[in-house]
Specification:
Number of strands: 8
Helix content: 25-40%
CATH superfamily: Chloramphenicol acetyltransferase-like domain
Strand order of the largest sheet: 1-8-7-6-4-5
Shape: globular
Distance between the termini: 100 Å
Order of helices and strands: HEHHEEEEHHHHEEEH
CATH architecture: 2-Layer Sandwich
CATH topology: Chloramphenicol Acetyltransferase
Radius of gyration: 21 Å
Amino acid sequence: MRGTIRKVSLRRRFIIDLMRASMGVPLITLSRTLDVKALAEARGSLQNAPGWAAIFAKAFSLVAKGDPILRTLYLGWPWSYFYELPRSIGMIAIARNDAGEDCILPQKVMAPDELPLDRVDALIRYAKTAPADDVPAFRKMLRVSALPWPLRPLVWAFGLHVPRQRANYFGSFGVTSVSAIGAGELHAVSPGPYILTYGVLKPDMTIDVVIRWDHRVTDAAVIARTLGRLETVLNTAIARELTDRQPQPEAKTVRAVAT
């Protein structure tokens, strides 16, 4: 059977290079169902509620603020060592149609824990609708993908093996999900040390969450505790921030009655 040869687009070339960079990362998976009743009630009371990607990005960053291991990268060249970042850097997978092609590109969010939730959400929504060249993280990745083969691996090697650039290119954690399309447990891969995925909100106010992590950096007990802290942060700090956004009822004016 004779087929048709099609050119690999820059967007698909980026994914191919990303998968190649992820092949050597020993990712381990832990999933848990989180009770997010307080968060769901606070979010459900808002007309323009922030998306779940923004919520989980900020929540994970808040947990990582108090646990340096969640901000630690493993680098294996020229020798093996750990590199602890002072702040979290989130890489949010953005599903979009660009130039007539469905693709995934990462939006970079610096220190989500230090930003208002509305700002984190705005950065993610902007990345979904703005021209790709207007989003700095997209523009950088597509420019690298446009390089010829002899140069492209060198740039990727620079990004993977220089610690500061590793953080700038790939972040300290990633967030991705297919919940907008329907239920399903996604086990994604990444060069980064942590990648979080989440499912759909269930009628009983629970949500399935999966964390995949680089086993060279830490062990399952740490991730189990992280999921417990994540549940707490979602129902306290994040829920309070959403509650504070709710419009307050106007105070009634009390007229003094003359006697």
